[in-house]
């Protein structure tokens, strides 16, 4: 049994060394353990990870022989944060086109796959990793269509292999942005959406599945781009109606959506738009949907709860920045959850390409909000779940990431204190059981200039 203090681990991390170099058996003992499933924290708990997966977490957990033991006494231990909505890895500098892959104005929309564009070495990825974000739901932005393309779940690890699940969902813009893209009205956006789903249904009906170059069927929600076989394309093209609006590529990409094997993630804020999404679910019952945004969700919370559609909501919007968010309130998430909505936290239109880690701050604020008379927030356990297991479950991946339940991926963070306290910091981050470096460009600049002698400064700095 190898015992390590957290200080020893931190020293290795500061040197940019990932400890351990590969997934092995790790036991973190003595800390306050939060499972991420909505339950209260557990004092003096133990977490055991073997071969990159959680074996056990809680009190009374036996430490396996030969495990590397990390003493976390006085610290907090949680699952890694899952960014409920982000664009991590798609942009380094927003204003520089060459460093920004968030959107496309080309001929394709639904067929676009965000995975090839994700840069694991982008500065925001390292920053979010250092803030305890271990996985992120990454969506493209819309260009000429209400369909932005297919998003992915990534990890923020330093191994250069970010894709956990490619082609996880199809992202659609409704509301104000969707209306503008569709031609100037919400009616146009909803008509385009329904038409596209019907076109995809025509493509799916009775055809042999096209295959991509990896041998996967084009309908499989796997990784890699969809590449249709030209001969098969001609055969199902003949069965399509003549008044089609989608390219062949886009229609094929929507087939997994209409067949209920790929989530349709819809951005909507206004209550009226949310009701249209609920109506869409009734019209296409096989489609697996999730909503992101939902600033006015609390006003129709019982209807959302009855629909069963999970919501990844903006947490602390309180002033109406748009006409579709006039009824926004900080109590939005608390009220929706109280009504039975499956709700978690995302950061759409909130520096999500850089600062997805803000979700942790928002979760802590919702705990504080629960203590204010007349306000509706979350309990501590509910708030942590809203940034860990909640987003994972909304995207159908609750059995894989987001909690410290047995069998989940070994994503774990050791914090200096309560992780929902803004003053706490991530002191050690593990992804798939491998400790990650916490060095960022910012820490390098800090270390470079913190102890620089005055004489070493350029002449301009001496005056």
TrEMBL record:
Matches recorded under Gene3D superfamilies: Metal-dependent hydrolases, Urease, subunit C, domain 1
Q: Which of UniProt's keywords are assigned here?
A: Signal
Is-annotated flag, keyword Cell membrane?
no
Chain residue ranges for the region called Disordered: 202-234
The family database entries (InterPro entries) matched by this protein are listed as: Amidohydro_3 (IPR013108), Metal-dep_hydrolase_composite (IPR011059), Metal_Hydrolase (IPR032466), Metallo-dep_Hydrolase (IPR051781)
Highest rank taxon of the organism: Bacteria
Q: Where is the Amidohydrolase domain?
A: 327-422
- For this UniProt entry, which residues form the secretion signal? 1-23
Q: Which Pfam families match?
A: Amidohydro_3
Check the record and name the PANTHER family matching this protein: ALPHA-D-RIBOSE 1-METHYLPHOSPHONATE 5-TRIPHOSPHATE DIPHOSPHATASE
Write down what this protein is called: Amidohydrolase family protein
Species whose genome carries this gene = Sphingomonas kaistensis
């Amino acid at each position: 049994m190898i015992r390590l203090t957290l200080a020893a681990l931190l020293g290795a991390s500061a040197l940019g060394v990932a400890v351990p170099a590969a997934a092995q058996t790790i036991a973190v003992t003595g800390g306050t353990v939060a499972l991420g499933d909505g339950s209260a924290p557990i004092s003096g708990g133990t977490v055991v990870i073997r071969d990159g997966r959680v074996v056990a977490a809680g009190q009374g957990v036996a430490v396996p022989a030969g495990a590397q033991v990390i003493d976390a006494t006085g610290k907090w231990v949680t699952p890694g944060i899952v960014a409920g909505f982000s664009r991590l890895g798609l942009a380094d500098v927003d204003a520089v086109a060459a460093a920004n892959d968030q959107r496309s104005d080309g001929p394709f929309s639904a067929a676009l796959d965000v995975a090839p564009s994700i840069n694991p070495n982008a500065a925001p990825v390292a920053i979010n990793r250092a803030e305890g974000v271990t996985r992120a739901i990454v969506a493209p932005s819309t260009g000429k269509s209400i369909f932005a393309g297919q998003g992915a779940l990534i990890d923020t690890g330093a191994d250069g292999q970010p894709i956990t699940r490619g082609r996880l969902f199809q992202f659609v813009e409704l509301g104000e942005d969707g209306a503008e893209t569709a031609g100037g009205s919400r009616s146009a956006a909803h008509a385009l959406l329904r038409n596209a789903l019907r076109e995809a249904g025509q493509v799916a009906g009775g055809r042999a599945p096209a295959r991509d170059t990896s041998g996967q069927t084009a309908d499989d929600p796997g990784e890699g781009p969809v590449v249709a076989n030209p001969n098969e394309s001609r055969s199902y093209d003949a069965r399509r109606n003549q008044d089609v609006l989608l390219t062949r590529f886009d229609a094929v990409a929507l087939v997994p959506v209409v067949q209920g094997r790929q989530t349709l993630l819809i951005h909507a804020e206004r209550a009226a738009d949310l009701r249209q999404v609920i109506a869409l679910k009734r019209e296409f019952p096989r489609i697996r949907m999730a909503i992101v945004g939902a600033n006015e969700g609390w006003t129709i919370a019982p209807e959302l709860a009855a629909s069963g559609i999970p919501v990844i909501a903006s947490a602390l919007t309180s002033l109406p920045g748009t006409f579709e968010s006039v009824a926004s309130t900080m109590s939005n998430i608390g009220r929706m959850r109280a009504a039975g909505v499956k709700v978690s936290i995302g950061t759409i239109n909130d520096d999500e390409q850089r600062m997805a880690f803000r979700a942790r701050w928002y979760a802590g604020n919702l705990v504080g909000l629960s203590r204010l008379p007349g306000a509706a927030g979350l309990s501590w356990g509910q708030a942590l779940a809203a940034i860990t297991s909640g987003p994972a479950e909304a995207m159908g991946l609750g059995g894989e990431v987001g909690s410290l339940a047995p069998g989940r991926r070994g994503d774990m963070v050791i914090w200096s204190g309560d992780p929902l306290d803004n003053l706490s910091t991530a002191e050690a981050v593990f992804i798939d059981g491998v400790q990650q470096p916490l060095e960022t460009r910012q820490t390098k600049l800090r270390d470079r200039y913190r102890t620089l002698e005055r004489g070493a400064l350029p002449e301009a700095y001496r005056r």
